[in-house]
Amino acid sequence: MTSDTTTSSRTDGYATELYEALRDGRTVTPLMGRDATLTINDAYAISLGILERRKADGERVVGKKIGVTSKAVQDMLGVHQPDFGFLTDRMWIQNETIDIAETGLIQPRAEAEIAFILRDGLKGPGVTAEQVIAATESIAPCFEIVDSRIADWKIGIVDTVADNASCGVFVIGEARADPRAHDLPALHVTVTKNGQPLSEGYGSAVQGSPAEAVAWLANTLGAYGVTLDAGDVILSGSLVPLAPAVAGDVFEMELHGIGRCAARFV
């Protein structure tokens, strides 16, 4: 058996394990704790393997996401570089109510983000923040509900990339805005939990500007032959620390000058 074949078999096995954990709503022990030789490229192969299984199960890709972009989130998780993953139609909550059991969430955390809805596709390398803005139809307030199939959120960068960037589901508010009409780094978000102030942040929290974060995503995925496509929803990373969520919690965010979004857990 060749080394490449061995690696492929190994990553395929981890993809199966994580996909089954996703479907069963359970966690697994950290991958890096079991196999210190895993690389980012291996993690990406695992993530793609999970995606192929989801597509075979009838899911459709509707976008991509970047995570662990802000220092607050990096410090919280102990992961000090961004990660990336895929969004599917089943992950898109079309109202504000998130049924934890129905969606299979295990250990969800809410984070307030700015979603980019692309008019034109982007393919790295060489994509700039200016090109991202030019390709964007609109931006919108968004809650990403991150979740981890890795036990107790004990993740390293390989674990989170392999686990589809720890993505669970997402909700996009109704408001839409032209990114060219706003100073993206200065956009201000405030978040409440159960009616009480929780956190606040600015667009500059994600790599200086959410457009810079999306450019990073386009360039990083481009190295693997993956594009950001016309019509894609791109989640640009949390502006605030992640907050645990349980049934009964209500999170609301105001992206000032643009609009609101809510996530109600049942």
Secondary-structure blueprint:
Blueprint: H1 3-24, H2 31-34, H3 40-56, E1 61-67, H4 71-77, E2 83-88, E3 92-93, E4 97-98, H5 100-103, E5 109-118, H6 129-135, E6 136-146, H7 157-162, E7 167-172, E8 188-193, E9 196-202, H8 210-222, E10 233-238, E11 243-244, E12 250-255, E13 259-265
Parallel strand pairs: 1-10, 3-7, 4-13
Antiparallel strand pairs: 1-2, 5-6, 5-10, 5-11, 6-7, 8-9, 8-12, 12-13
Helix pairs in contact: 1-3, 6-8
CATH-assigned fold name: Fumarylacetoacetate hydrolase, domain 2
The sequence of SSEs as H and E is HHHEHEEEHEHEHEEEHEEEE
- Major sheet: size, sense and barrel closure? 8 strands, mixed
Low-confidence stretches: none
Number of helices: 8
What share of the residues lie within helices? 25-40%
CATH architecture: Alpha-Beta Complex
Number of strands: 13
What structural category do the secondary elements indicate?
Answer: alpha+beta
Mean pLDDT: 93
Termini gap:
49 Å
Amount of beta strand: 25-35%
User: What is the alpha-carbon Rg in Å?
Assistant: 17 Å
Give the name of the CATH superfamily.
Answer: Fumarylacetoacetase-like, C-terminal domain
User: Would you state the CATH class?
Assistant: Alpha Beta
Based on CA inertia axes, which overall geometry fits? Answer: globular
Number of domains as seen in the coordinates: 1
